[in-house]
Write a structure and sequence with these properties.
By secondary structure, the chain is of the alpha/beta class. Helix content is 36%, strand content 28%. It has eight helices and ten strands. Strand 9 and strand 10 (221-222) form a beta hairpin.
Length: 224
C-alpha cells in the first residue's frame, strides 16, 4: 500500500517560562492511502497534538513528518500554508465555518484560495455537499444550520478540495448520538467508495467501532 503520511520519532514539548510539558515522546506512525484510522486515548494523551503536527499546523520539537513523499517539519510558514492548501483537508471540532458565507461558499472556500474559477469551484463544492446530503441547504448560512449540518459542511469543504488526506479532530464531539452516527456513516462511505484517507483524533466509541485501525496513545506515547 502507498504511504501517504509518516511520522518518525516525533516529540513535542511545550514551554512556558522555565516549565516544560512533554506532549509527545518519540511517536512513529505510518498512514497508507485509503485508510480510516483513529488516534484514541484520554485527554492529554497527545492525540490532538499528533494530528496537528501531521497536518503542519504546528512544528515538532524533534523528529520527522513526511507527507506525500516530502519531509515537511522543516518547512517555512509559507511552504506549510501551501502544503495545507493543496494536500490536507481539516475537519475541526468547532466546525470553523465562515459565518457570512453560505454552505456552498464555505465548501468552495479552499478552492477559491487556490484561484479556481467560480463555476469550477461551485460545481465541485456542490458535488461534495450532495455527497453528504447537504445539497438542499447549499444557500443557507451557518446560523441557519444545525450542528450536525454545519459539521457536514465542514467535511464537504475538506472533500471538495480533494486532498491526499483528511485530518479530523474530534469531529463528533459536539453532536448528539443520532447526528454523530450519521456523520460517521457518511465519512465511512466516502472512505470506501472514493478511497478518501481519514485520520481522526477521537474518544467516541461509535467512531472507534468503525475504523480500520486504532492507534492508542497514553502520556504522549503509542500504547497499542
Amino acid at each position: 500500500m502507498k504511504s501517504v503520511l509518516q511520522v518518525k520519532e516525533l516529540t513535542k514539548v511545550y514551554r512556558v517560562d522555565t516549565v516544560e510539558t512533554p506532549a509527545l515522546r518519540g511517536v512513529s506512525l505510518e498512514v497508507h492511502s485509503g485508510e480510516f484510522i483513529a488516534l484514541a486515548g484520554p485527554s492529554g494523551s497527545g492525540k490532538s497534538t499528533l494530528l496537528h503536527l501531521m497536518g503542519g499546523l504546528d512544528k515538532p520539537t524533534s523528529g520527522e513528518v513526511w507527507l506525500g513523499g516530502q519531509r515537511i517539519d522543516g518547512f517555512s510558514k509559507v511552504q506549510l500554508s501551501n502544503l495545507r492548501l493543496w494536500n490536507v483537508g481539516f475537519v475541526f471540532q468547532a466546525y470553523n465555518l465562515i459565518p457570512v458565507l453560505t454552505a456552498l461558499e464555505n465548501a468552495a472556500f479552499v478552492l477559491e484560495l487556490r484561484g479556481e474559477p467560480r463555476e469550477v469551484r461551485e460545481t465541485k463544492a456542490l458535488q461534495a455537499l450532495e455527497t453528504l446530503g447537504m445539497k438542499d441547504f447549499a444557500h443557507r448560512r451557518p446560523n441557519q444550520l444545525s450542528g450536525g449540518q454545519q459539521q457536514r459542511v465542514a467535511v464537504a469543504r475538506a472533500l471538495a478540495a480533494r486532498p491526499q488526506i483528511i485530518l479530523a479532530d474530534e469531529p463528533t464531539a459536539n453532536l448528539d448520538s443520532k447526528t454523530g452516527l450519521a456523520l460517521i456513516e457518511h465519512m465511512r462511505t466516502l472512505n470506501r467508495e472514493q478511497g478518501v484517507t481519514f485520520v481522526f483524533s477521537t474518544h467516541d466509541p461509535r467512531l472507534l467501532e468503525r475504523v480500520d485501525r486504532i492507534v492508542r496513545l497514553e502520556d504522549g506515547q503509542i500504547a497499542a
